[in-house]
Specification:
The complex is a heterodimer of chains A (373) and B (104).
Chain A: H1 14-32, H2 35-72, H3 78-85, H4 102-124, H5 131-163, H6 167-189, H7 191-196, H8 204-212, E1 219-222, E2 225-232, E3 235-242, H9 252-262, E4 269-277, E5 287-291, H10 300-311, E6 316-323, H11 325-329, H12 334-354, E7 360-365
Parallel strand pairs in A: 3-7, 4-6, 4-7
Antiparallel strand pairs in A: 1-2, 2-3, 5-6
Helix pairs in contact in A: 2-3, 2-5, 2-6, 4-5, 5-6, 8-12, 9-10
Chain B: H1 11-40, E1 44-52, E2 58-62, E3 72-77, E4 84-94
Antiparallel strand pairs in B: 1-2, 1-4, 3-4
Classes of the chains: A alpha/beta (373), B alpha+beta (104).
Chain lengths: 373, 104
Amino acid sequence: MMFQTTPPYPGSSDWATIAWIIISLFWILLLFTDLLDRSRLMRYDRFVRIKLNDLEKMMREAREASEKYIRDLGAKEPNKILEGFIGNFFIIEPVSIEPIDIIKRMSHLIRVRDNKIRAYISERLPENTDPVKKMNLAIILEINWTLDLYYRYIRHLYLSSKKNNNWILLMQLAMVLPIIMRELEAVKRAVEPFSKGIPVGDSAGPMVISVLAPTAERIPITEETVYSKAEFENRILYLIKAEGPGGTVGRPGEALEKLLETLNGKVARVITVDAALKFEGEASGSVAEGVGAAIGDPGPEKISIERSVAKYSIPLDAVIIKMSSREAITEMSKEIYEGVLKAVEKVKEIIRARTKPGDTVVIIGVGNTVGVK
Amino acid sequence: MSSIYLTQIDFGTLLLLILIIMLVISLLPNLLKGEEKEKRQQPTKIYSVLSCLECDYSETREFVPGDYVGKILENRKCPKCDSLMYVKAIYAVYEEKTKEKVRI
């Protein structure tokens, strides 16, 4: 043997004994001091810093792709358009401790913000810019806004945890960051479908309308929302969707309210079709049917649908196409397209089974109508 | 002068070696995870489903910029009945979709 000295016990070498003493001391330090916690925290700290760098990179990539899109629209300083939008255009939620007319107040604030965004875009782009591309730009700006907000918020939590020596906050942040990053990765990827005008998973609802009546005239009914009239097995169908093919969700609630007023409430059934979040393990594109308003807005549109059908006592059906949050904002997958076809069949089944020939049925395709006319 | 043979290693040294090997093995999954993340970002292919306005003919081709669902294609005629065709749907095929499947 190389280091043959007097062994402390039979069959043992000197260097091994020293190593064991060091390891034993190390164990004592780990067990009886907060060295273990601190070493873990160092790992969490490093992990959060890496994720923050990844997020910054994602933000930069989204910004570069967005700048290219804005430049192609003819704007001279795309980075200024992005910088002017990011960090601004926040919305302060209405007072909820006094709930009277909260929906009216919320709806008003959402509309003020929407109009502000539209004006911001129109002021900065050439006059002859395609309105569809302007609508898509509004979504692209929102994507950059979201990524920036999350980056700043995560950085705030990280720096606060370091400043206040808050171990729990740092650990919680490290635990939850992989999920957040996965969602934000999908948000970043959403720039591409919106810049190319490709339908996303959330476009499933409007696509159902398009499959039901592909060539029917789209008549404007309210801001960024249209309706079409079609016939199906001796029933009259009114089909509501957002005005495409630009990226918008329209105002389906307000549109239904107006349509029902025009028809004096003489409608046999209202069917809402929308994309819905699936549970982990469920198949993407599977279709389910229920009762209620299938719509995921902050409140004003949903309550408008509920109030309208309740006023005239019209049965309200919901058909949902299941998908993950990632699938909802990235290019529509083949599975979801197949789900759209299944949803069309489900809608036809409902009409055949629960309405009579001569009845009027309203179908609302809820969702972002990017790439769908 | 001479090298260490396995039979000459004492119990303490053996434990130390096992500890080092276990440490290396515990680090391996982290390296493998990094590779999986790269695979998840495979590019996608986008297709447009074209359908005839009159008959049931339908075909699928790669997405062309400017396509949107409901677009009537003026320069494309149905090979079966010579009517106009329209874009019925646009969808993406994700190349490594199977990776996200969960087997219970």
